[in-house]
Amino acid sequence: MSRQLAHHSHQETKEPRYRQLARILAHEIRTQHSAGDQLSSELALAKRFEVNRHTVRRALDELVAAGMVTRHQGWGTQVVDRRLDYMVNAESKVTHNLAEMGINTETRCLSQGLSRPPEAISQRFGLADGECLICVDTLRLVDGMPLTRLRHWFDATRVPDWCERYRGGSTRALLDQHYGLRLSRASVRLEASQANRDDSRLLQCPQLAPLLVLTSDNVDESRRLVEVSVSCARADRVSYHFDFLNER
Prior knowledge:
alpha+beta, six-stranded antiparallel beta sheet, two-stranded antiparallel ribbon, 9 helices, elongated
């Protein structure tokens, strides 16, 4: 067994080998390939990872099912798209869901503190003139590459001492663990935008590159607004699909 696959096997002893291989290949597709690239042949992959071709074939079947590659007789296996397809629904938690997909994520805190929000967000919270919210700017990286920059606006009365507690990572986890708040999306708006200078620097994309801007109103179990989050994602690296049919 190859050293790379053996390492995954040690960490994921209960996971079938073909799924371990699928994870490795999915990571390589996201970080090393572009749409239209061809993967190595089944035989070459079998030799590289020291597995049989049946294991390779099942791993590639997983990638086909995930929409990452397509297979054609006599043509081989071709990368379809490098974009991360992310499900958005009322209960979805980005960091948790990506981890379940075997995707390594990191969320860095760029800045945080009390700040006056834009008028549209101020109205959503019903703030009086001059009232502030806690503004938290974060950068989410997937497999070590920047994917989204996020701005979270929190009702300061619901999250006392936030700035002393939060140092990065999942904001949802901190809300749950320290404040007993389990938020869900009450509404979502998706818009198109273009990268400005800060977007270009943080997301490592050209200025004016297309972005997807997802704005979510996040409420507690009593449907009281706690947070408005604004996520700017590189359109060449992420796609969203929405599923609210099976919500409670």
